[in-house]
Amino acid sequence: MIEAPDLSLAALTPLLFVFGAALVGVLVESFAPRHVRQPTQVALALVGTVGGFVSTLLIAGRSEVTAGGALAVDGAGLFLQATIAGLAALSILLFAERGLDPAKSAFVASAAVPAGSPRDRELLTDERVQTEVYPLATFAVGGMMLFVAANDLLVMFIALEVLSLPLYLICGLARRRRLLSQEAAVKYFLLGAFASAFFLYGLALVYGATGSIRLSEIRESVSTDGTGTLLVLGLGLLIVGLMFKASVAPFHTWTPDVYQGAPTPVTAFMAACTKVAAFGAILRLLYVAFGTADWTWRPLVYGIAIVSMVVGAVLGLTQTDVKRMLAYSSIAHAGFLLTGVIGLGGGTGSGLSATLFYLLAYGLTTIGAFAVVTLVRDGDGEATQLSQWAGLARRSPLTAGVMTFLLLALAGIPLTSGFTGKFAVFRAAIEVGAWPLAVGALVTSAIAGFFYLRLVVLMYFSAPAEDGPSVGVPGLPTTIVLAVTVAATLVLGVVPGSVLDLADRAATLVG
């Protein structure tokens, strides 16, 4: 007789909200008249993400394992789910920014058209609006929220595919620069398939070594039987698969091309939400399954952190495109985040809470920076070449000021959330004796600060070109995104105490 697994519907409410909105969105796309799809899909996506965010707040404090042990509901998982849902709601607003002017939408009206064909050129001014991106993005959000709560390697793999497949599609839906967008989608898909294969092979090796794919049972096996060669190899492959999704060097090769080619709202969505989800899974795997054998993974993570910080900071100096520059910034920040992961080895929880805070701060700042990128436009769409941003402060002082503030936050300047986040993760690393890594992070952070300041100098101290780009007036959705991200970046830098305390209380993982 098969017994039904225990199931706590209250604990699953955030997932039910998001996946429910995604499924209804598919039905709307199938049956609703075209003229009502855009407002309906935007409303559904916001209901799903905001509902998921609110429900995580309502069930805060729960600590249990449900769905037959496949899902864990705990402080860190709920904090990450709330972060993903909140950042996703801001991303949905960016998706919807140009819905009132379909010809200026970031998304192509019909994706099933060869790039560069006469029909493709006609679609540049087509009045139709692409609405399939909303249920696709909502499915991706559901996969991310499931990813950070998975207490089972097989569920974690399924969540990885659920969040990845919609992203592969929406990366190729840019209205302009179609070939670049499609190339980005194909690269992301192919490299993502390799990463998934690494994860699945690692899962098989871990199962062969321990006889289980449940994280808690893996921990028990490690505690009693130790770690053999098979288990260490499996862990290494699992880490490779997760590091790819987190865009950590040397598994970062997809990141600059995809960030540049994807529609900018999608880039913002990926840069913020996907990184939170990937690091959430990394934390759960290392803390719950292998926390008692941190010597097996700390040297590997230590080396990867150094490589990622150096690659992101040094190669970021050579970029001439704003989106590619922010891509290498993302790679460098992934290295900084790994210094917080190293802090897990102390058993005090400071590394976990510091990483949670950093993910929130970085996600908000990054979405704000990409929101500013959507406003600087020329005849071909968004003007992303650094040379086109010369003298931007004379054309729009407010836009240049907002971008400067967000860049300074990414650089970790005091009185911004970036400084607080870096201070927290560096301190966590020092507490467990990884002070050389913290020193290296400080040096690479100073190097990375150069390419942020280079853009600031261009905006304020260079003469604008006569045929330079214009700065669009943001609509209500983008205005909301900029207001929220700038205010949050300032508050988390000036008075971060309450959120740091919240992260400390949430720094628990059950298995």
Protein described:
The structure is a single chain. This protein is mainly alpha-helical and 511 residues long. The chain has one domain. Helix content is 69%, strand content 3%. The chain contains 20 helices and 5 strands. It has helices spanning 13-31, 34-58, 75-95, 118-122, 133-147, 153-170, 178-210, 215-225, 229-245, 255-261, 264-289, 298-316, 322-342, 350-373, 392-395, 397-411, 417-431, 435-461, 476-494, 497-506; strands spanning 64-66, 71-73, 376-378, 381-382, 470-471. The strands form 2 sheets. The protein has a 3-stranded antiparallel β-sheet with strand order 4-3-5, with no helix packed on it. Helix 2 packs parallel to helix 5 (133-147), helix 12 (298-316) packs parallel to helix 18 (435-461) and helix 14 runs antiparallel to helix 17 (417-431). The longest helix is centred in the middle third of the chain and has 33 residues, at 178-210. The chain starts with 12 loop residues before the first helix and ends in a 5-residue tail after the last helix. The mean pLDDT is 86.
Discrete helix count:
20
- Measure the end-to-end span: 26 Å
Helix content: 55-70%
Radius of gyration: 22 Å
DSSP summary, beta strand count = 5
Q: Describe the main β-sheet briefly.
A: 3 strands, antiparallel
In the predicted model, the low-confidence regions spanning at least 5 consecutive residues are none
How are the strands of the largest sheet arranged?
A: 4-3-5
Shape: globular
Derived structural class: mainly alpha
Strand content: under 5%
Number of domains: 1
Order of helices and strands: HHEEHHHHHHHHHHHHEEHHHHEHH
Write down the overall mean pLDDT: 86
